[in-house]
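Workshop exercise sheet. Pairs work together: one partner reads the sequence aloud, the other fills in the structure field after running the prediction. Swap roles for the next sheet.
Pair: D.N. / O.F.
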Amino acid sequence: MEPLPAAASVLGVVAFIGTVTAAASSFMRDFRSARKEIVAVKKEISSLRALMEILADDFNDPANTELPESVFLRIVDITTDYRRVLHEMDDCIRI
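Structure field:
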């Protein structure tokens, strides 16, 4: 399998993380009592973003085209799950 579908999936998660982070900041301003929890969530989201950016860079490296198709498929599945969770978080924050 070509790394492009996996890279696109990873980059999609990276882009959406920015949206969720901004919503979390807004939420934190509105609900100061939850500040500690929101800071912890934002830290985890930032770590996830860093990991996704590393994966995206790896997929753009021509030397990494030798990975088995099962690895690419698993990464696509994982990023799909991350995207679903991020959408759920975004929905909760925007209420």
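Discussion prompt: The chain has one domain: 4-93. What would you look at next?
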